[in-house]
Amino acid sequence: MTTHTSNYFDLASRLPANTVVAFHNVGWDEYEELLLQVGESSGMRISFDNGSLQIMTTSPEHERYASFIERLVSTLSLQLRINILFFGSATIKKRGNRKGNEPDCCFYVQTATAIGNRMHLDFEVDPPPDIAVEVDLHHDSRPKFPIYAGLGLPEIWRFDGIKLTIYLLEDDHYRESATSVALPMLTSVILTDFLSRLSHDNDLEILLAFDEWLKSLSRWALF
After folding, report:
1. How many CB atoms lie within 10 A of CB 109?
2. Residue 13 has pLDDT above 90, yes or no
3. What is the dihedral of CA 78, 199, 160, 37, to 10 degrees?
4. Which strands sit side by side in the sheet containing 20-23, from one edge to the other?
5. Would the pTM of this model clear 0.85, i.e. be above it?
6. For residue 219, what is the enclosing H or E element?
7. Which pLDDT band, with edges at 50, 70 and 90, does 219 fall under?
8. Distances from the Cα of 214 to the Cα of 25, 48, 98, 197, angstroms
9. Partner of 122 at 20 to 30 A CA spacing, among 140, 194, 198, 206?
């Protein structure tokens, strides 16, 4: 373990919630060593872009939104019988590209069959998730979008606490889209609507309403 890596870990372990720190001229091996030291910390996200290392800590509010987005997608998976794989804030990295990032949650939809029942992925050979979610309550994740583009991630959902925006990868850049490609029944408007209800309804009420909305899609599909 290098001295620099030890310093990164010591600093990261003392950071308060909603804090971002950045370092430059960091080696890939130092980045991977830091990932091993941090482990599966639910309150921390680490990104790497060609020598630039960023550590971000999250808050309970941040984690709650990320968790609720997962619950919405899980409800959709069950109701519409769509095979979706959930990999949480998995570290998506490619040494050859010198890029790595940790979304707030991510899903395999179109490529779920290719992943099968494997628990551990190697992104040097495995496809990236079909959707990555970024919850931006206190910080803007858009400067990290070039990392996702370099990793070949096709779709990003960004929620800023008010609106969820869908971005699709085209020609190495992301453009806004009204509708998800991976889950075309979902739009920015629909996702924003159900997430906004967290401020005045309880989780069960929102999930039941979302389930009823999904059932209405199924009923329309019969005609």
Report:
1. 21
2. no
3. -70
4. 20-23, 52-57, 44-49, 99-101, 92-94
5. yes
6. helix 203-221
7. low
8. 48, 38, 40, 17
9. 140
